[in-house]
Amino acid sequence: MVSPLQQADMDTGVRHIRRVSDRLMALIALGLLFVVAAVLLARSTDNIVVAEPPVGDITHERSLLFSDGANGEITISDDVSGEVIRTLYAGEGSFIRGVVRSLVRTRQQQGLFSQAAFQLNLYEDGRLQLVDPLTHELIDLGAFGPTNVAEFAGLLPNHGRSPLVAGGA
Question: Angle 11-13-19 (CA atoms, 0-180°, nearest 5)?
Fold first, then answer.
């Protein structure tokens, strides 16, 4: 049923325009202003942090192969000797899994689907790096703290003989 007011509007051809409230318009303007300010701040403080290279020679190194198992386990073995160093069962080693997964993802993005080994290097200054020789990507593990450094340090031969420093000296 049409009200008399609506009927009169239909007869005269007048259409009521629905206006947005002033409060809503102020909120929209404030939101747009915030977005512009955030973008300007991000653009003006866009600094790339470059880590200093490790100091000294490599004191310990190991070529590591990571193999996926049927039940979610990952077997970590020495590429040279074939010795199984460690097996990470489902739910274990989330840091190691995450780091290796990021390097594998980079390989796949570059079209490299090789099972080539990764190189784990410990330097004189205590810095520990995982390097992908195929993509030349490297991850300075010290940036993730001493607990995570220790996860990878346990994969090195004789790792207990050198002091490990998170992030280097």
Answer: 125
